[in-house]
Specification:
Blueprint (H helix, E strand, L loop, with lengths): L25 E8 L5 E7 L4 E7 L14 E5 L5 E8 L5 E7 L4 E7 L14 E5 L5 E8 L5 E7 L4 E7 L14 E5 L13
Antiparallel strand pairs: 1-2, 2-3, 3-4, 5-6, 6-7, 7-8, 9-10, 10-11, 11-12
């Protein structure tokens, strides 16, 4: 997209690049672009336990030098969780956000550049968060240059969204928002906020 929101027809095919997983039952959940326009796509296995990161070159083709032939599979090993977002640093390390379907928790997985779990972060590579509220879904994640990060909760079937501000160690940054939380209200039922401006 150009700065004014129009298609950048110099990229892809008139501004559009199509991707085909070749597999039924997978949903593309999130995309992350680097400064050089290379990117990653997060796919989630519907009703399964897997997610997969696709590594892309700037021209949209698979970067087979990353992961295993351009792909990194991650298995939660637990049904009822959905990988909804991820953010990777320039060195390939990063975080994957999982949401516990229909319940109150989400979990950040800390991953190494090769897609394996970074057990030095969180509790063995994982950090759980509990909203304490049913009917909210965690669906976006962003890492800042200082390693602090935010993730976004959406009120399912309601009008609100909430940004949680976290320190680099995953604790709540109470200096941001109101005690570490930033609520936004669309005022219009029937709309779902799925991401926020990074």
């Amino acid at each position: 997209m150009n700065a004014d929101g129009s298609f950048d027809t110099s990229m892809g095919s008139n501004g559009i690049t199509y991707f085909d997983s070749g597999l039924y039952g997978w949903t593309a959940a999130s995309i992350h672009l680097q400064a050089d326009l290379s990117g990653r796509i997060l796919w989630n296995e519907d009703a399964g336990t897997l997610c997969c990161i696709w590594y892309l070159k700037a021209d949209g083709t698979i970067n087979t030098t990353k992961g295993s032939g351009g792909f990194s599979f991650i298995d939660s090993g637990v049904y009822g969780w959905t990988a909804t977002s991820f953010h990777l640093r320039a060195d390939g390390t990063g975080m994957v956000l999982w949401n516990e379907d229909d319940l109150t928790r989400c979990c950040i997985w800390y991953i190494n550049a090769d897609g394996t779990i970074d057990a030095t972060k969180g509790s063995g590579g994982f950090r759980f968060f509990d909203s304490g509220l049913y009917g909210w879904s965690a669906n976006d994640l962003f890492i800042n240059p200082d390693d602090s990060h935010q993730f976004f909760w959406n009120e399912d079937g309601g009008t609100q969204g909430c940004i949680w501000y976290l320190n680099a160690d995953g604790s709540l940054d109470t200096s941001e928002g109101t005690g570490g939380f930033g609520f936004v209200d669309s005022v219009a039922p029937g709309w779902t906020a799925t991401s926020y401006g990074h």
